[in-house]
Write a structure and sequence with these properties.
With 259 residues, the chain is an alpha/beta fold. The chain is built from eight helices and ten strands. It has helices at 9-26, 41-54, 80-87, 109-122, 159-165, 184-188, 203-211, 244-253; strands spanning 2-6, 31-34, 62-65, 67-69, 99-100, 128-131, 153-156, 178-181, 192-197, 229-234. The strands form two sheets. It has a seven-stranded parallel sheet with strand order 1-10-9-6-2-3-5, sandwiched between helices. The protein has a three-stranded antiparallel sheet with strand order 4-8-7. Strand 9, helix 7 (203-211) and strand 10 (229-234) form a beta-alpha-beta unit. Helix 1 (9-26) crosses helix 2 (41-54). The protein is globular and about 50 Å long. It binds 2-phosphoglycolic acid.
């Protein structure tokens, strides 16, 4: 795992965007796995800037989102369909036919999930997967105790995740308890993984994922088994890492082309 600690979320997001831009320039028909939540907003803003100001071309890119709430239609303001449209898709040139998100309104969840997996394979597999991390160590919505080889499926959110996200929902009872999420096995097949985490509230989960034992109780710890996983942190999110100075030192030694 490569641990990249930056002074601000903006700086960390710029570096993560650089990885994605390089990927798209090297392989214009790249397949991107996308995440939602508050964490990747700055990353999307930087990708939009690169599209507008530096001609980053998304016209051959295909995207698959990690997850969606069960029971929310795409037009619901808190659906991840809406989030992606508002934060990214409406500002870049990805053809709508190349955009995939789980369908939270599907009538046959298992069949939909199997088809989603097939679609990722047909597209050639994920080149890069963007991830956030939950305060409970989840990636996607793979909550603690998720099988480390799981595939796309329905999951029930933990009370901790429900509390973390309650602020986004106005009316009580509006917040879904179920999601469709790519599995940990699905995520681990991505050729490159970029995990972003910002803020002191993520420090404990980050330390458990990066330096703790590999365990289904901290699903993000599976990234220790991935050959090409980069973890982009701001200082507060790195606050509980015991080897933070070493990670900073490693970063200082890197040639520019590796960043
Ligand atoms: P957040 O969520 O970016 O809103 O903190 C991260 C996650 O739950 O994966």
């Amino acid at each position: 795992m490569e641990i990249i600690i930056q002074s601000t979320p903006e700086a960390a997001s710029r570096l993560a965007a650089r990885h994605i831009a390089r990927q798209i320039r090297e392989k214009p028909d790249s397949v991107l796995g996308l995440a939602t939540g508050s964490t990747p907003r700055l990353l999307y803003q930087e990708l939009i800037r690169l599209h507008r100001e530096e001609g980053l071309n998304f016209s051959r890119v295909t995207t698959f989102n990690l997850d969606e709430y069960v029971g929310l239609p795409p037009e619901h303001p808190q659906s991840y369909h809406q989030y992606m449209h508002e934060n990214f898709f409406r500002f870049v040139n990805i053809p709508i036919s190349q955009i995939y998100l789980p369908d939270g309104m599907t009538e046959d969840v298992p069949e939909f999930c199997a088809a989603y997996e097939d679609r990722i394979q047909e597209a050639g597999g994920l080149d890069v997967q963007i991830l956030g991390i939950g305060t409970d160590g989840h990636v996607g919505f793979n909550e603690p105790s998720s099988s480390l080889t799981s595939r796309t499926r329905i999951k029930t959110l933990t009370p901790q995740t429900l509390a973390d996200n309650a602020r986004f929902f106005e009316a009580e009872g509006e917040q879904p308890h179920h999601v469709i999420t790519m599995g940990i096995g699905t995520i681990m097949e991505a050729r490159r993984i970029l995990l972003l985490a910002f803020g002191q509230q993520k420090a404990e989960a980050v330390a458990a994922a990066v330096e703790g034992p590999l365990t289904a109780m901290v699903p993000a710890s599976i990234l220790q088994m991935h050959s090409t996983a980069h973890v982009f942190l701001d200082e507060p999110a790195a606050g509980e890492l015991t080897k933070a100075d070493y990670y900073r030192w490693v970063l200082e030694q890197k040639p520019d082309w590796q960043l």
